[in-house]
Amino acid sequence: MFAIISAAIAPGIALLSYFYLRDSLRPEPVSMVIRTFFFGVLVVFPIMILQHIMQTEWNLQGQILQSVLNSAMVEEFFKWIVVYYTAYKHVEFDEPYDGIVYAVAVSLGFATLENFFYLVINGLNVAIWRAFLPVSSHALFGVWMGYYLGLGKFSAEEHKRQRFVLVSMLLPMLLHALYNLIFSNQYWPWFILPFMVLLWWQGLKKVRLAHEFDSKIAKTRPN
């Protein structure tokens, strides 16, 4: 069991550490990041309950409905809710890149517990595959979510703020749905690698752009 726990936790901690350490200007309090991570862990349970209700009581059947509505939309919506109400409005959210840190923390909290359940059922032989695909994809969905939350938080115009906040919720849903739909195709090995490369490439680009935005804001602060 110790091996399973370690294999389940390690990818999430490694990825969270990577994105946290990229926050070089004004790093977030470690306690706040850990708290956000555990909120992501806790949100797994209401998501599981709702997904069970949707599948059994609402009779949601079919691969597309399962992939898009029951998985991608539900999971990303709950993660967004957690980030918005626990971090977005918090005083420590004082730079655009902070959105990435907190959204990645929530996403990896969710992914870590999900990964643990999956490894308990399927064993350690899928641990590497889980780390490179499901866990890292959740982190990258969080990057996109946090990037647009950061833009929204620091936009001077109200209509831009509302638009960015809406995009921060809808875009991760779309990316997650595409990820799930790739696996519903029998030729998924041909598509998942370029999709993940594109996701990482654009995700790291969002990290760089958020840092540039941080620097611009830092110059406007009084010394």
From TrEMBL:
Keywords: Cell membrane, Hydrolase, Membrane, Protease, Transmembrane, Transmembrane helix
BP term (GO), one: proteolysis
Protein's name according to its UniProt entry: Protease PrsW
Subcellular location: Cell membrane
Top-rank EC class of the record's enzyme: hydrolase
Domain of life: Bacteria
Function: Involved in the degradation of specific anti-sigma factors.
Gene Ontology MF annotations: peptidase activity
Membrane topology label: Multi-pass membrane protein
Transmembrane keyword on record: yes
Stretches assigned to coiled coil: none
Similarity comment: family membership: Belongs to the protease PrsW family.
GO cellular component: plasma membrane
Main location: membrane
Listed EC numbers: 3.4.-.-
UniProt-listed NCBIfam families: intramemb_PrsW
Transmembrane stretches, start-end: 32-50, 99-121, 127-151, 163-181, 187-204
